[in-house]
Amino acid sequence: MRRTIFTAEHDLFRETAHAYFERECAPYADEWERAGQVSRDAWTAAGKAGLIGWEFPEEYGGQGVRDFRYNAIMAEEMAATGSVGIGLGLQNDVIPPYLMNLTTDEQKARWLPGVVRGETICALALSEPGAGSDLKSIRTTARRDGDEWVVDGSKTFITNGILADLVVVACKTDPEAGHKGISLIVVERGAEGFERGRKLDKVGMKAQDTAELFFRGVRVPAENLIGQEGRGFYHMMGNLPTERLAIAVSSLAAAERAFTIALEYAGERTAFGQPIGSFQATRFALADARAKLDAARVYVDGCTMALVEGHLTAEDAAAAKYWTSETAWAVIDRCMQLFGGYGYVNEYEIARIWRDNRVQRVFGGTSEIMQEIVGRSLGL
After folding, report:
1. Is 117 exposed, middle or buried (0-12, 13-18, 19+ CB in 10 A)?
2. CA triplet 343, 345, 351: central angle to 5 degrees?
3. What is the pLDDT of residues 311-325, one digit of tens each?
4. What is the pLDDT of residues 108-139, one digit of tens each?
5. Catalytic-residue membership of 243
6. Which of 243, 268, 315, 349 is catalytic?
């Protein structure tokens, strides 16, 4: 369907993003999957191309443009080119509100230029072995000792965990105050006592480094606190709608890629002397997928514009994340089925798309948590 949410400036940005992913990422997909992480060169290339931190002020290297349509374009072109692993979505979709809205001028000057250049890779350390969606239950602590915070605890499922130079860590600064005792503290690469655990051996997203992080008496300057002490939980909750819409966007982009290659395969693969696309069962499967993708596209584009215009609610974002990730998974799984046994062979892109996207229904809040958020809003 024809899309109407983009301007000529967005179209030019899409061309730049597509060229970047085609040149700097797609050719290295297999290599990065084997290594379990991407090259830092791809990050600095993204910085040079102006594909990181465009919403940061110009004085720090950004462009001062806050428009989620650019974020959507990045996710769409990454999927469309078959690129893998590089955590630019986290860097552009999730991290900016923390580094823009919660930092002092001194902190911005210290951190933002490197982030925009792709030299400073960021991570957000919220989840713990015993606290995923239930962020109120985190156990990592930070106690004040003079001009420093002393951080103790562990985190898991941390995207960019191995490569990260700057980690925003959710800590209990007042363990007796429940969720009102959570604060956000930035831990930087090289801090004594800050250790990276193993790269997690995941079912999918193998090129994206996901790690355990350990903090053993890590001393952090007091000025590395971002936002207000004790308000970390509220800061995190305020940023979740954008993160969840970003997951909806990337889920749909992956499903559209799966549909594209399944459609091509249906025209090329023969069985019983004719292309499998000539069988009614195949045509109906693809027709069903096409209808679902068109409906999802209208829905997600509408949510994107709601965010751009400032009226996307937490419930809207939760519903979009839930419905789109579930629908995308159904489409991807059905497209994989059309490949028969070859769809289960890792050298086929459809296999990677299938295994990479199962987690979309889990991270950023599981589908069940999303249903609970929406359900509570119904006044029941």
Report:
1. middle
2. 55
3. 999 999 999 999 999
4. 999 999 999 999 999 999 999 987 777 788 99
5. yes
6. 243
